[in-house]
């Protein structure tokens, strides 16, 4: 069987993504949403920034529609419903972008009482703090995306990517839950940090306790209670639980104060950490240079500070190649 390759134009691809985003929003508010749907949705969001942006825009449009509908009188609203119903057959025959708007119209009428999900994102090198109505604080580190919903029976956060520090006001009757893929952390009165990368998830408890569920895909899926100092690293094939000293946890949270704290870190590991915060990427080509160790405190968004350490303390050569900084002997 032969294969034919073709390319979809940017405009067509944009309309397709808009339609997908609208369909996801409709499914989320349908009342039949389950954990598999959530996992599929997470996967779709993580496929590209275009997906995330499209969903955010669709969600914003729906929220504006919700506010407008809420201001209408019952008589006007009934007329709007009839008018909108007559338009649906016509809209179905139009382009995908217009079809997405029709879906939004149906959603606006059908799901006015559904809980809304807010999306928050930081850029590379960004840092943002959210304060919830109950006093809980959520701090987003560099290149992070979360979705937050405050429901009648629970407070829920989806960590799509990046790193977040949580300081949660405990409420047993209104639990605080963080979901990352099929992994779940439930607050039991605590401060904790979560970091989600493409191939791993890290959870570290700073104070109090959390209940951690590794997910059905992991053989060690029995819920576990983690206490202050406990840290768990989970990948597709492993789950490792460790105990950390207070100063180790404090060092890892240096980003809360705009710094990175290294203690006998290899130059390679330090460079990889720096690359999370800066568009200029540090490249170390020599394996021996990569194994050199570094201890100290450096600002997260100052690549020059790292370069100065490489030059002045290790007598290394530094060359700039576009957005890359190459360090070698």
Give your account of this protein's structure:
The protein is an alpha+beta fold. The protein has 3 domains: 10-110, no CATH class; 117-249, Jelly Rolls (Sandwich), CATH 2.60.120.1440; 258-328, Phage tail protein beta-alpha-beta fold, CATH 3.55.50. 36% of the residues lie in helices and 33% in strands. Strands 1, 2, 3, 4, 5, 6, 7, 8, 9, 10 and 11 form an 11-stranded mixed sheet that branches. A 3-stranded mixed sheet has the order 13-16-15. Helix 3 crosses helix 5 and helix 4 runs antiparallel to helix 5 (96-110).
Keywords:
329 residues; alpha+beta; Jelly Rolls; Phage tail protein beta-alpha-beta fold; 3 domains; 11-stranded mixed β-sheet; 3-stranded mixed β-sheet; 9 helices; 36% helix
Global geometry:
globular
Second CATH tier, the architecture of the largest domain: Sandwich
The overall number of domains is: 3
Span between termini: 53 Å
Which structural category do the helix and sheet elements fall into?
alpha+beta
How many beta-strand elements?
16
Element-level helix/strand string: HHHHHEEEEEEEEEEEHEHEHEHEE
Q: Give the CATH level 1 class of the largest domain.
A: Mainly Beta
- The portion of residues forming beta strands comes to 25-35%
CATH topology of the largest domain: Jelly Rolls
Query: For the report, how would you describe the main beta sheet?
Result: 11 strands, mixed
Count of DSSP H/I helices? 9
Look at the structure and give the mean pLDDT.
80
Radius of gyration, in Å, reads: 24 Å
Classify the helix fraction into a percent range.
25-40%
**Low-pLDDT sequence parts:** 1-9, 67-73, 75-85, 87-95, 109-113
């Amino acid at each position: 069987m032969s294969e034919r390759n073709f390319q979809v134009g940017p405009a067509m691809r944009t309309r397709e993504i808009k339609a997908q985003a609208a369909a996801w929003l409709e499914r989320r508010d349908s009342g039949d949403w389950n954990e598999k749907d959530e996992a599929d949705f997470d996967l779709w969001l993580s496929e590209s920034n275009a997906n995330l942006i499209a969903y955010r825009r669709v969600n914003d449009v729906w929220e504006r529609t919700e506010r407008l509908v809420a201001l209408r009188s019952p008589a006007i609203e009934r007329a709007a419903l009839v008018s909108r119903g007559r338009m649906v057959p016509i809209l179905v025959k139009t382009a995908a972008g217009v079809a997405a708007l029709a879906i939004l119209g149906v959603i606006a009428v059908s799901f006015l009482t559904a809980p809304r999900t807010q999306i928050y994102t930081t850029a590379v090198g960004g840092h943002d703090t959210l304060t919830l109505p109950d006093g809980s604080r959520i701090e987003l580190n560099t290149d992070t995306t979360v979705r937050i919903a405050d429901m009648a029976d629970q407070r829920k956060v989806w960590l799509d990517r990046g790193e977040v520090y949580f300081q949660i006001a405990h409420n047993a009757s209104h639990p605080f839950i963080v979901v990352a893929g099929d992994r779940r952390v439930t607050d039991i009165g605590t401060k904790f940090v979560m970091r989600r990368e493409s191939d791993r998830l890290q959870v570290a408890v700073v104070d109090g306790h959390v209940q951690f569920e590794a997910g059905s895909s992991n053989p060690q899926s029995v819920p576990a209670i983690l206490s202050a100092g406990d840290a768990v690293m989970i990948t597709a094939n492993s789950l490792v639980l460790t105990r950390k000293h207070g100063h180790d946890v404090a060092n890892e949270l240096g980003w809360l104060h705009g710094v990175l704290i290294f203690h006998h870190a290899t130059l390679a590991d330090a460079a990889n950490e720096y690359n999370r915060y800066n568009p200029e990427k540090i490249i170390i080509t020599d394996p021996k240079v990569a194994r050199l160790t570094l201890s100290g405190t450096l600002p997260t968004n100052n690549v020059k500070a790292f370069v100065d350490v490489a030059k002045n303390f290790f007598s290394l050569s530094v060359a700039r190649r576009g957005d890359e900084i190459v360090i070698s002997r």
